[in-house]
Specification:
With 429 residues, this protein is α/β, with parallel strands linked by helices. The protein folds into two domains: 160 residues, FAD/NAD(P)-binding domain, CATH 3.50.50; 208 residues, D-Amino Acid Oxidase, subunit A, domain 2 (D-Amino Acid Oxidase, Chain A, domain 2), CATH 3.30.9.10. 35% of the residues lie in helices and 26% in strands. It is built from 13 helices and 21 strands. The strands form four sheets. Strands 4, 6, 7, 8, 15, 16, 17, 18 and 19 form a nine-stranded mixed sheet that branches. A six-stranded mixed sheet has the order 10-2-1-14-21-20, sandwiched between helices. Strands 3-9-5 form a three-stranded antiparallel sheet. α1 runs parallel beside α7, α1 runs parallel beside α13 and α4 packs across α13. The structure holds flavin-adenine dinucleotide. The site of flavin-adenine dinucleotide has 41 residues, from α1, β11, β15, β19 and α13.
Amino acid sequence: MKATIIGGGIIGLSTAYYLKQEGWEVTVLERGDLTDGCSFGNMGYLSPSHFAPLAQPGVVSQGILGMFRQTSPFYVRPALSRNLLDWGLKFVRACTAEHVARSAKPMAELLLLSRYLTAAWQNSGEMNFEYAQTGCINYFQTAKYEKGELENVRMGHDLGLKIKVLDREECQAMEPELQPEVRGGAWYQDDAMLYPNELMRQLTALLEQRSVTILRNAEVKGIQKQQGKISSVQYQTAGETRTIQSDLFVLAAGSWSQPVARMAGEYLPMMPGKGYSMTVDTEHQALRQPCILLEAKVAISPWAKRLRIGSTMEIGAVNDRILVPRVQGILEAVPRFFPAYAKDAAFQKLSHPDMLRKHLREQVWYGFRPLSADGLPYIGFAPKTDNLMIATGHAMLGLSMAAATGKLVSEMASGKPTSMEVGAFGVGR
Ligand SMILES: Cc1cc2nc3c(=O)[nH]c(=O)nc-3n(C[C@H](O)[C@H](O)[C@H](O)COP(=O)(O)OP(=O)(O)OC[C@H]3O[C@@H](n4cnc5c(N)ncnc54)[C@H](O)[C@@H]3O)c2cc1C
């Protein structure tokens, strides 16, 4: 049986991995050359701690306030777009406490399954990317954010997650060199971190070794259907239009999934959520734990020889603009939480005004998170097309959920019982 996957980001590649394992003959069509994209420059977190979907109470007011501040970590670019309006209405409707309560369990299950499967990729020896299961600390500086975080901790405990609430002294003991300037933190011990650029490189190589066909610079341009099934897909490569037939197609085109779905007569409410990251090599890594600075919504990833700082959620169009105030907002937050970073050589190099002035394009990476309208991914069969499956909409958790998404798609495609209940992620919901 033949399967064709549209999109070679982490979701497409992990789906290829499990479909191949189930015995499918797999082809991946990827518009780019598999050296960059949202699945590369992200923070590398595997986050069972993020069981609450993006659509949650309070997010809408943050987005509205952010519209007036270019340095805000959450920003909706005002635009008269039917797409944004439709997505926005659905998103606002989903921002309720009931939605969070209903979604937390399936989200936590998907995240835990995925972390387990990702660790297995590493532990089995088939890949060897930098991976550490040291947990992640969410730091807060104010009583307001402490209150919100403790609610997340309470829900996390109910879901069986290992979480330790830390006071200021305990936070400082966790980071003896950097002595965070915080009120406290929540240490989510089930979380893990990997280096995504290396995972993407190794997973691509492993798939090719296992005879998965990966067609680079192959952009899907059209879809033909007959009697409710895809009969062929057209893609363009090296100026030529070619056609591919398959028993199964899986749409995993990230933030570009909506226009491709439309080619098959399907509708996916989605918006891109742009985010930035900056990476610098470092000989000495002062930070011990991956962490999130809650008030600033900034994440920091300390790998053995690199430091990555990233954040912001800019909901709007796909474009290549880099908003300097937004980048500055991310960098300025770091020494507010870790004053010692003001004197750290690696951080100084990254945040020096010359970096932003002269090397903006080389130093600042950006990617587009594929945002579904209710904060849960779409995983399953398309409502109107028998041989089309959808695997997208993972927002800020695509890496965290990739392995489980691929596994579930391969199980559903092969008519097997699924490793977990998938109803919450149904595409036509
Ligand atoms: C700053 C930032 C930090 C993040 N940190 C984390 C984190 O720590 N942990 C986490 O879990 N997630 C994180 N994320 C989110 C994560 O990166 C995404 O959810 C994930 O990469 C999405 O993967 P994907 O495969 O769905 O999409 P993508 O990686 O975007 O892949 C989709 C692919 O489809 C291809 N494509 C599009 N259209 C076509 C077409 N017509 N034909 C053929 N190919 C096509 C594209 O070229 C692309 O390669 C972060 C995101 C950002 C921006």
